[in-house]
Amino acid sequence: MEIKSVAEKLNDEGLAIGKLSLLTGISTHTLRVWERRYGSPGSIRLPSGHRRYPREEVPRLRAVARALKAGLRPKRVVPASLEDLEKLLQVAPLLSQGNKGDAGQDQTAEEMARSEIIERWIGGVHRYCNETLDQGFHEEWAKRGPMNFVCDYATAFLHRVGAGWESGELSVSQEHFASARLGDFLGSMWRRLSERNEGEVCIHAGLPGEPHGMGLAMAAVITAVTGRRIIFLGVDTPTDDIIASTKACGGRMLCVSVSETYDQKTARQLLQKIRKALAPSIRMVVGGKGAPGGSNGVAVLDSMNAYYQWLQNSKNV
Ligand code: B12
Question: Smallest Cα–Cα separation from 222: which of 183, 186, 182, 267?
Fold first, then answer.
């Protein structure tokens, strides 16, 4: 692995010690002690004397915190690279047996394993590393299956990316990089499934002005898993085009995802407009945090699991 100096890693203004502490849950005192004792996390000093830390220390230090909770020694883990910590953490559950009291007591082993995987992907986002994300997504998809991948991993990853962006840990470009890579992956997977399917045609679309497309891509995976064929219009589609293409493609179902940033009143009006224009036999389903209730003739579902059940209970002709 390429070892970068602190100055090379600090390609922007970096993080102040208080912010690093906030993002990792490690006190500023401990961070200073570790730097003095182990030379890690390394910082540079501004002319004012204040320390600045590279942003990519955040996932590494979170892994350090987990390794310490699992009973590993500070000398071994504080200066370790993220890759080494991940390897250590794979055996850590064995080391921490009988020491459950302080090792993330409210997290099950499965949740801990998942959050380690998510943090590894976040490390990949920090480094703009295509391979970490692509390989990671493929591995978990193969291990968990499409349903668990979508519900437990893809969603948790995006929420973690959102929290990282909100707190300033991740830049806008890193957030875009993360969602673009996951979107490409989900797209390649539902396409592969859909191409072999012979079931009904289902249109997937986002309403005009909708920028969030991951819910739609996840829903497409679920639709494809149930043997249906997908026509994917993507986000920000004018309602007249949604109506025209549903008719033109012989769509038997229309799936819409509405995110939390979308105005609910507008969403309701647009969904009603589409509903009136389509034959009653064409089913409409909407989900997402901004999905409005009270749209006649439109099924409103709150989760991918509910969507899967709904599809299983509907005809697929
Ligand atoms: C990626 C992202 C973007 C990308 C989207 C790229 C893309 N290709 O999708 C871009 C950069 C475009 C973007 C833009 C914005 N974003 Co944004 N974004 C995100 C992020 C990180 C992930 C969104 C996502 O895909 N989530 C995953 C989805 C699938 O999860 P979910 O919504 O919880 O959906 C679940 C259920 O609702 C359901 N579901 C969803 N769809 C469907 C469909 C069906 C049929 C069913 C059954 C179920 C279902 O299943 C999902 C899994 O459980 C979130 C963080 C977050 N917490 O989600 C912020 C987030 C949604 N964005 C946010 C904001 C503020 C914005 C902007 C306004 C920022 C700005 N100032 O410009 C703009 C929007 C501008 C506009 N025109 O409206 C806020 C929203 C806060 C709020 N409450 O309003 C969030 C929460 C980030 C944050 N922590 O502050 N964003």
Answer: 186
CB of 219 within 6 A of ligand 1: the answer is yes
Given a contact cutoff of 8 angstroms between Cβ atoms, the answer to whether 12 and 19 are in contact is no
Q: How many whole angstroms from 108 Cα to the centroid of ligand 1?
A: 27
What per-residue confidence (pLDDT) applies to 4?
59
Q: Determine the Cα–Cα distance for residues 72 and 99; give it in Å rounded to an integer.
A: 11
Q: Give domain status of residue 22, yes or no.
A: no
CA of 261 to the centre of ligand 1 (A): 7
Bond preceding residue 208 cis, omega within 30 of 0: no
* Pocket perturbation via mutation, ligand 1, pick of 118, 159, 228, 261 by most ligand atoms within 8 A of CB: 261
What's the total number of domains in the chain?
1
Cβ atoms within 10 Å of 309's Cβ, excluding its own: 12
Instruction: State the pLDDT at residue 96.
Output: 40
pTM value surpassing 0.90: no
Pocket test for ligand 1, best of 169, 186, 214 (most atoms within 8 A of CB): 214
Assess if residue 221 is contained within a domain: yes
Side-chain half-sphere of 36: how many Cα atoms within 13 Å?
A: 6
